[in-house]
Specification:
This protein is of the alpha+beta class. It folds into two domains: 242 residues, no CATH class; 163 residues, Immunoglobulin-like. The chain has 15 helices and 18 strands. A four-stranded antiparallel β-sheet has the order 10-9-17-18. Strands 7-8-16 form a three-stranded antiparallel β-sheet. Strand 5 and strand 6 form a beta hairpin. The longest helix has 19 residues. It is globular, with a radius of gyration of 28 Å. The termini are far apart.
Length: 475
């Protein structure tokens, strides 16, 4: 069935890919095809690290490093291969093990025919022998292995290899080759990271992917002075090669806790959270909490990537002074499932029957898109009725949470011993008081001393001034 559908869809997909091409005429080339090269044409990263030790240490342990070895990916792609009679084997692998694809070593999807270098994911000698592209989307890269390495500098000199400048390395279109994914059969856009950037204010302001993901600035450009390699000239900026996104789940499995820490920091700088609550509330009264979430730091939608499985949501818990829970939404149950969240900020894909699916390879439509675009603010409201005999004050705790995948999916694919970390992107706290509590202009309760002895602080200040003037005159 899948083979028949594929044949009937090739022209449509080709048209989609042509539409996705943007600004690539200067370096447009034919994409390197499956099996066109040999894995022996590529150089192991151990050779590169001899001169580029700092850049290598940035890359080691990242999701590019583990693009193929990622156990979540390996389990999911096996299911996808079974569901589609192998249709997605080359399609998914072209970004996760590009050397494996251009060398014709995958399929089979189990990697049994793959060389060691192909299992290194998106590695040094693959990235720096990209000599052009045929646009963006579904990895239309051209690779030319050999003694020439391409990069972002037009004055590089190396005693070991030739160096060539290619403008593509300084543009978002380089990243857009893999970070725009279009369904190979029906043209559904599965990952729109590149296009959501392209349509944003960031693109208008000429802020490219590399400005945020290859600098120390996390969500804005920050120069990283240094040398690209031993013996290279010192430059005002050398691109960092950790290129971290939001994945704090997989890196610790490979001992790369520092990469996970960077992912957490990036998440915490991606969005802001503001909440509004009443200063006072009476028993029996309906209380409303208003939360505003702004995508303040990401140049694309949040969440992004294969965002049908990403989960971002607001957790709200209201307790009284004795610890009694008055209201909750977005907390996790014993199995790690999200309970009563107002909204899960991701997109919901549908299959050919119109049913929601977490399997993008079975999807042909978008049922809902609840992601937050660049610079966009969304608001959600939570209401509850305050019970009798509540112990004041009330504490309202809110947390904007994120995780890479639902816990039930990981339980199914990887076993119940693997817990998906929940990252708090931002937190806000508010207090609601008894109506009898005097509240100042800042929304804070006035102390009994300040309300019973008005003007006392003024008297103290005048007394201090009088003593100071007396000492001055004596001198």
């Amino acid at each position: 069935m899948w083979g028949t559908i594929l044949k009937g869809s090739l022209l449509f997909v080709a048209a989609m890919l042509l539409l996705s091409m943007t600004g690539c005429s200067a370096y447009a080339t034919e994409a390197t095809e499956f099996g066109e090269l040999s894995s022996d044409d590529f150089t192991y990263e151990s050779r590169c690290r001899q001169c580029h030790a700092i850049i290598y240490s940035d890359w080691e342990g990242t999701m590019h490093f583990n693009a193929y070895l990622d156990p979540f990916y390996l389990e999911e792609v096996k299911v996808a291969s079974e569901d589609t009679d192998g249709l997605v084997d080359e399609f998914c692998s072209r970004c996760h093990t590009p050397i494996g694809v251009v060398s014709g070593e995958i399929p089979p999807i189990d990697g049994s025919e793959m060389s060691d270098i192909a299992k290194l994911g998106v590695q040094c000698d693959f990235c720096h022998v990209v000599s052009g592209s045929n646009g963006t989307g579904n990895a239309p890269f051209t690779v030319t292995p050999g003694n020439t390495k391409w990069g972002p500098f037009d004055d590089s000199r190396s005693a070991y290899h030739d160096s060539e400048y290619l403008e593509l390395y300084t543009q978002s279109e380089y990243c857009g080759m893999c970070h725009l994914v279009i369904h190979p059969v029906n043209g559904l856009v599965i990952d729109d990271t590149y296009t959501s950037w392209q349509e944003s204010q960031y693109a208008e302001d000429e802020v490219v992917c590399q400005d945020c993901h290859m600098t120390d600035g996390i969500t804005e450009f920050e120069a990283n002075p240094g040398r690209a390699g031993s013996g290279a000239p010192k430059r005002e900026h050398i691109s960092s090669h950790d290129i971290v996104g939001a994945n704090a789940f997989i890196p610790p499995m490979f001992g790369a806790s520092s990469v996970a820490d960077m992912a957490v920091e990036r998440l915490q700088r991606a969005a802001t959270l503001e909440i509004s609550t009443p200063e006072i509330a009476s028993a029996g009264e309906e209380v409303m909490i208003e939360a505003a979430i702004t995508n303040s730091g990401a140049g694309h939608n949040i969440p992004t990537g294969v965002s049908e499985i990403r989960q971002m949501w607001l957790e709200v818990v209201v307790t009284d002074s004795e610890g009694n829970e008055i209201y909750n939404a977005g907390t996790l149950d014993a199995d790690g499932n999200i309970e009563e969240a107002k909204i899960i900020y991701n997109n919901v894909l549908g299959d050919s029957n119109g049913s929601a699916t977490d399997s993008f390879w079975l999807a042909d439509r978008v049922l809902e898109d609840n992601r937050i675009g660049p610079k966009e603010t969304v608001t959600e409201e939570h209401t509850f009725t305050l019970p009798d005999n509540v112990a004041y004050p009330l504490t309202v705790e809110t947390s904007l949470n994120y995780r890479s995948a639902p816990q039930y999916m990981i339980d199914h694919l990887m076993g119940e011993d693997t817990e998906v970390p929940v990252i708090s992107m931002n937190k806000e706290l508010a207090i609601i008081y008894d109506p009898s509590t005097p509240i100042d202009e800042r929304g804070q309760p006035r102390s009994s001393e300040s309300t019973s002895t008005p003007g006392f602080s003024v008297f103290i200040a005048l007394a201090a001034l009088s003593i100071t003037m007396y000492i001055f005159k004596r001198k």
